[in-house]
Amino acid sequence: MGCDILCSRYMTSIAANLQAVRERIGAACLAAGRSKDSVSLLAVSKTWPAASLREAAAAGQLAFGENYVQEAIDKIATLADPALEWHFIGPLQSNKTRAVAENFAWVHSVDRLKIAERLSAQRPSGMPPLKLCLQVNVSGEASKSGCTPVEAPGLAAAIARLPGVTLKGLMAIPEPTDDVTLQRRRFALLRETLGTINTELGGGLDTLSMGMSDDLEAAIMEGASIVRIGTAIFGQRQYQT
Ligand SMILES: *Cc1c(COP(=O)(O)O)cnc(C)c1O
Description:
Elements: H1 4-12, H2 14-32, E1 40-44, H3 50-58, E2 63-66, H4 69-79, E3 85-88, H5 97-103, E4 106-110, H6 113-122, E5 130-135, H7 152-160, E6 165-171, H8 180-201, E7 207-209, H9 216-221, E8 226-229, H10 231-234
Parallel strand pairs: 1-2, 1-8, 2-3, 3-4, 4-5, 5-6, 6-7
Helix pairs in contact: 5-6, 7-8
The site of pyridoxal-5'-phosphate has 14 residues, from strand 8 and helix 10.
């Protein structure tokens, strides 16, 4: 981007950026012939301070995605707002599952059964089931995170049997590319994988968590139900993940 005026506007006007993102989502839904209520916006707030999230919340954004467990726990405690909904979207190691099971409503980045089993066992019984998405690698060799599309149905069947968690659908982070045709092919593969799983499990999974700041239109064309947007809301992060 490299534009000082644009970047400073991003950093000072979270509410305006949110409005612009909502308009992009609305336009993409219109182009795709979908209702705009069929796509929900997850604000990805990794690296941003609690004050930025408060600003977004004041503008009506209540669902936040975080990638780092300790950073997220600190913000959840600082904001202490029961209206906020917390989604864990980063790589999850076994030794961090308890904090996630106790503090989040969703985990999008489940990539193996062991993690789902730990989240299931560690979800406090007084809380509603933790909503899970299975992360699928739709980019082949170009990416390392997520199970393969071939592994997904078996893993989904095993996760769907666990107590304390509810499998909602699939998530993907395709490799970045400006090629819209390739973007759509990756997202279509996630949609098709969800279709295969629903056929095998008898339906019920309705979530496709896909699309970020640079490719949300392609994701919505291919059926995204949650788009995860960071930069277009909060601005350029000082460090990348
Ligand atoms: C950082 C991140 C996003 C947001 O990316 P932007 O390009 O800033 O919109 C979405 N999903 C995941 C898993 C991320 O780590």
